[in-house]
């Protein structure tokens, strides 16, 4: 019976520590409904899905990702215009907005190659065609 006391004490201490621990803040991102201000024109090729069930059209609307140059990632978003859905594996041209353009744009000069990261997977490759409003 006495052997249970340390275990119960550890469980209670863990619960108290968990209650006192502040909740981690969500990472800053684009505000919902904010106006799209493009910073670069890019050519992007999304990799074809390995699973036939996931081989679907990329639908219109806003898409968020991280664009990775070397080992640095930069939060970005791009928009597929209404009626312009497309298949993966084909090169497409999009305007891209960076969350922190002052930090990202020096790394995304004309012809810079990058990879697209969504969640924990690299899903596409691209290159910068032109900086918008900076040439």
Describe this structure in words.
The chain is elongated and about 70 Å long. 16% of the residues lie in helices and 37% in strands. The protein has a domain at 40-131: Translation factors (Elongation Factor Tu (Ef-tu), domain 3). A hairpin with a 2-residue loop joins strand 5 and strand 6. The model has no long low-confidence stretch (mean pLDDT 87). It has 135 residues and is α+β, with helices and mostly antiparallel strands.
Element layout with pairings:
Layout: H1 4-20, E1 40-46, E2 61-69, E3 72-80, E4 91-98, H2 101-104, E5 113-118, E6 121-131
Antiparallel strand pairs: 1-4, 1-6, 2-3, 2-5, 3-4, 5-6
Question: Would you summarize the structure shown here?
Answer:
By secondary structure, this protein is of the alpha+beta class. It has 2 helices and 6 strands.
Sheet with most strands: 6 strands, antiparallel, barrel
What is the fourth-level CATH superfamily of the domain at 40-131? Translation factors
Secondary structure tally: strands: 6
Shape: elongated
Q: Strand pairing plus helix content: what structural class?
A: alpha+beta
Named at the architecture level, the CATH assignment of the domain at 40-131 is Beta Barrel
Give, in order, the helices and strands: HEEEEHEE
Remind me, CATH topology of the domain at 40-131?
Elongation Factor Tu (Ef-tu), domain 3
What's the CATH C level of the domain at 40-131?
Answer: Mainly Beta
Stretches where pLDDT is under 50 for at least 5 consecutive residues are none
User: What order do the strands of the largest sheet run in, or round the barrel if closed?
Assistant: 1-4-3-2-5-6
Mean pLDDT: 87
Radius of gyration: 22 Å
- Share of β-strand residues: 35-45%
Helix content: 10-25%
If helices are DSSP runs of H or I spanning 4 or more residues, what is the number of helices? Answer: 2
